[in-house]
Structures are given as structure tokens and as C-alpha cells.
Amino acid sequence: MKKFGFSMPTKILFGPGIVREEGGALALGKKPFLVTGKSSARRSGAWDDVLAVLPGGYEVFDQVENNPSVETVRRGGRLARAADCDYIIAIGGGSPLDAAKIIAVLAANDVDPLDLYTEGWSRRALPVAAIPTTAGTGSEVTQYAVLTIADEETKKGLGGFDLFPRVAYLDPRYTRSQPLEVTVDTAVDALSHLIEGYLARRAAPASDFTALKGLELWAENIAALKAGSFSLENRASLLLASTLGGITIAQTGTCLVHALGYSLTYFHGLPHGRANAVFLAEYLRYTETVEPQRTEEILGLLGLSSPEDFGELISGLFRQKLDNFSLSKAEKRRYVQKAVSTRNMSNSRGEPGLEELMKIVEASVKS
Ligand SMILES: [Fe+2]
User: Fold this and answer.
1) Distance between CA atoms of 172 and 361, rounded to whole angstroms?
2) Is 37 helix (H, G, I), strand (E, B) or coil?
3) Coil, strand or helix: which one is 67?
4) Can you give the pLDDT at residue 348?
5) Percent of the chain beyond pLDDT 90?
6) Is 32 left (phi over 0), alpha (psi -120 to 50) or beta?
7) Separation of 54 CA from ligand 1 center, angstroms?
8) pLDDT digits (tens, 9 = 90+) for 116-147
9) CA of 93 to the centre of ligand 1 (A)
């Protein structure tokens, strides 16, 4: 029998209007540092809801870019410390949420962000309230944050128990302001978390439960994703599927799809979910050989019978835009080299090595 643990310390509050209704749980201290991107928090309505329930003064940091850099969190940490803030409110997609978590660490620890990767940190991070405006990242319920590290030419995750937000407010109305492209990109990121989590070496009965339920919910929205038209019910179940994906990978971690995807984002600017999408079908073709039962279950829940069907689904969702994506042989070799030494690889079942990874990349992307 497999021994396992299950850790989910984040309080989840879900539903339309939930920030204003349950605003009391948002005040995790005396003065918040509001972390967000340039516009999506305001566009989504989340910004007004938060300001309406905040009891007193606050400080704003609205400079988080897509795929946040070390410099951004360094600046944010300094400002949060200087403003004497004692908790963080993160509003936005995965980038602001991840940046906010690291700013929470830096506000409590006067160290360089790059040192966190090698030395960790000693003082507990400030508590974080997370309010996602996309349905994909799952960051609102994980202990991970990903930064872009220019020196290493990649994105790199940091993990720690105090990176779990204290509270997550999930209001599906906030995701309505996202363009269709972002809705699809982020939905496929959520799908990737659910699939990789279910196929991870660290998968266990409790994470299987959240992964399978998430896949079932995600599948109910395939028609809406194809049509590009979403009711609030669609938005709600995609957001819940995304959060279940986050809860899953908080237990299991991600696998080789994320390891490969990071290079497509870093070197070619593909949004994170789309970068994962490039490799998912071939990953399933690979897992069919090392984990046939689980792969079949995933395909079955999505109403598909083979990895080829899965590839067609992905191609359709991205309106064939991904079909012409190509990489040179040298680029492929380089990205495989980068991925093969990551922890995500040892978490992938079947012990894939350089050769298997190269096969997946060759079959996924034209030269
Ligand atoms: Fe992801």
C-alpha cells in the first residue's frame, strides 16, 4: 500500500461576489501590499471589490510583467518592506500571483531573490491572499512560484510551505474579462496540471481524486472552449478545474511537459499553457507505453480514444496556430538538455532519459 500525505492549508472561498461577501477573511494583517499586473485586476472587477472591503490604508505594486523577473520581485520586496506592509494581496493571473508569493518572502527576509534558490529563507513569508483572474495557474492553492532567471535562460520554480496562500478568493466573473486566447492558454495549463499530476511518480490516492474530478469538470467545457463562448457556469467549472489542478500539483509536482514548456516560453515567447500544449499529445503517446491504464483513463474522461485524438483537440483549440510552430534541430537538442536535468524529469514515470525526451520533442514540433 502506498504511503502518502496531503497538504492543503489554503482556505478557499468560491463563488460570484465572494470578495465583497466574505471580505473579512481578506484582512490578514494591518496594512496590505497589493501586487498585480498592469491592467487585468482593474479590468476584471477584482480591484474594485478588494478596495471596497479593505478597512484601511494599503500600498500598491502594479508592475508585474508576464513571466516575472528577478528584478521585479527584488523591487517589490524592497517596497513592501519600506512601506511596512504586513500582508500581501495578489490579484491577477499566474505572473502576479507567483511574484506576490516571492515578494512575501523578500518582505520578511532582506536577501537577494536568487539566493532563495540555494539558501532558502529563515523568516516566515508574509501571509498572502490570492485572487486569480484567470482559470489556469492554480498558483492560488500551491506552495510554488516560478520566476524567469535570465542567467540560466529559463523559468525556475521555488517551493516552500509558506508560499501556500492563506486564503484564495475564486470568483468566476473575474475571468470574463480575459480575451479568448488567454482563456484557452490558461485552460490548457490547468489541463496540463491535471494530466501531469495524475501521471506523476508522486501521485497518490488523494491527489488522484482531485485530478480525476478536475479532468471531469474540464471535459464538460470542451464544447465551450472549441466554440469560444462561455457561460458563467462554464467559467465557474473551468476555474474549479484549475484550482483542482493546483491542489493536485501541490501534492505531486509537474512532469516533463512543464520542463520542456519553459524553454518555449523563455526563447520563443509562447504563453505558458500554449507551450505545454505543444508537448501534451506526444507525452500521452509516451505514457501510453509506461502507464497505459492511467493514460486511458485520462483520454476516456476527455471523451477521446487515443493520443492522436488528443492532438486534434489541442490543434482545434488553438485554431491550428500551433501546427506551424517549428524548431531547428539544434534548438530541440538544447531544450531537451535543459529539461533533462530538472526535478520534473525524475517525477515522470517510465524514467525517460535524453533519448525518450528527444523523441517526444521530434514528434511534437516540426524542424
Ligand atoms: Fe503550469
Assistant:
1) 35
2) coil
3) coil
4) 95
5) 95
6) beta
7) 31
8) 999 999 999 999 999 999 999 999 999 999 99
9) 11
d(CA 361, CA 43): 38
The cell numbers describing 60, all together, are 500598491
Q: Locate 228 and state its grid cell.
A: 469560444
The rounded Å distance from CA 193 to ligand 1 centre is 6
Nearest residue to 274 via CA among 342, 323, 322: 322
Ligand 1 centroid to 263 CA: how many Å?
Answer: 13
Closest CA to 61 of 44, 92, 37: 37
Domains of the chain: 11-173 (3.40.50.1970), 180-364 (1.20.1090.10)
User: How far is Cα 85 from Cα 88, in angstroms, rounded to an integer?
Assistant: 8
Q: Decide: helix, strand or coil at residue 11.
A: strand
pLDDT tens figures, 156-191: 999 999 999 999 999 999 999 999 999 999 999 999
> How far, in Å, is the centroid of ligand 1 from the Cα of 240?
15
Whether residue 320 has pLDDT greater than 90 = no
Q: Which three cell numbers stand for residue 295?
A: 493514460
